[in-house]
Task: structure prediction
Amino acid sequence: PGGELKVETTICNEIRQSGNAVVIDHVAEDDAFSGHPTPALYGFQSYISMPIMRSDGSFFGTLCSIDPRPAKVKNPQIVGMFKLFADLIAFHLDTVDRLASSQATLDSERRDAELREQFIAVLGHDLRNPLASIKAGAELLQRGRAGDKAPEVLRLMQASVSRMAALVDNVLDFARGRLGEGIDLQRRDTDLEPVLRHVVEELRSAHADRPIEAEFVLQRPVHCDSGRIAQLLSNLLANALTHGAAGSPVRVVGRLDGDTFELTVANRGNPIPPETLAKLFQPFFRGGARRYQQGLGLGLYISAEVARAHGGTLQAASSAEETRFMLRIPGTSRV
Result:
């Protein structure tokens, strides 16, 4: 009692195949089941089993009753009652599934609505600034008032155009990652160290007052999309320079552990609160950004998508000692 039966040894298994109810008043006198092995195996003489069929026509199970003694169960009242209970069970199961599906759809639509609102608000804000800069520069040049400052005005306008292009690129990557099939990769065996050092030098030039320590131990080519890895490192390094302690260096380490490529970016500074850490890789999240720190809040999200597209992971840990981001991509060796 209370144990499980092997389905193959039961009449329920036959009902699953036929979809028809089985009702037996007295096994010994029943033409179809008097010689059936199941009644002898489980010691019953009367039996009723009603299939439970879902609204999509799938078989869920059976509602059954057995008795070691003969009983008059083959009558409309008992058969009708079992049919009613089986239908009620199926209806309840379908209702639970519909409610779960409706809730999942509602949750998904709510998340999409929130993302749309964030997208419109953040994109509108962040595109407005470089557009205003370009407009002001164009008006200054058009009126001939720039004078000897014209080259500087043009330089600022070009920087605004570059910033807008970067924002658009981030939006496209977001769309690919969130709405499409993920970020596209062009993986090939790459001598990755020069690529990583170039990113470090770019950030050193932009943050001349901030020390960046870089160490790369890459004994062989890495099978990856080098452009995307560079994008990821640029995002992580810019993030560390923005939020790290001004007087402390940011440290970048790239190495191979077997066939796994590891890249870490670490900085000192105030630790990231746990509630913020849990949301870092969500799109449009800018938990610690100051008002003057512009950006869509997509950098870390896109970085995580780049890691995922490579079959890897991007994780963050933060303590009083340091904040560290670590990328791990397995299977980077083609040898």
Q: What stands out?
A: The longest strand covers residues 59-67.
